[in-house]
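Narrative summary of target 7.
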Amino acid sequence: MGTEPRSPLTSAIMLAVAISSAFPTGTLAAPVCKDAGHPINVSATNLAFGIYTSGSPLPLDSNSTVQVYCSNLTNILPSFTVSLSAGGAGSFNPRKLSNGSIHLNYNMYTNATYTIIWGDGTSGTSTQSYTQSQNLGQISFTDFGQVPAHQIVAAGAYTDTITVTVTF
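Modeled conformation, tokenized:
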């Protein structure tokens, strides 16, 4: 029996990031910028990995941005911490992109060397912080995403939803 040549499987992978804000304990009002009482906004770009070739010998990397800003950029942000949820996997290492019951491991990091997992400060993860002494009306944090090499998965769209929480 001969074997027919096989083409590599490819998987389109997209990570959707959902946004939510956590307010300080004991506070009923939404946090505001220090010098004028303007609302604080949070935005995030999707972490879009593009096409992953099943069994690839190389990891697949991508970046996204989380931005916290005053509605009037000349105002000053209060101090805060930014954390990311574990997503659908329920654990931080690894996070999992899903296509039905099929999963593709990935993770999100605070650094370009992919060594510090961005999470909620538990299970060996780290958060990102801003201190008001920096006197900024906006700040952006880069999320470094990576899908590890050598994963065998079926073709399809793989997604996960991460919640960004900003605690003031």
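The longest strand covers residues 60-70.
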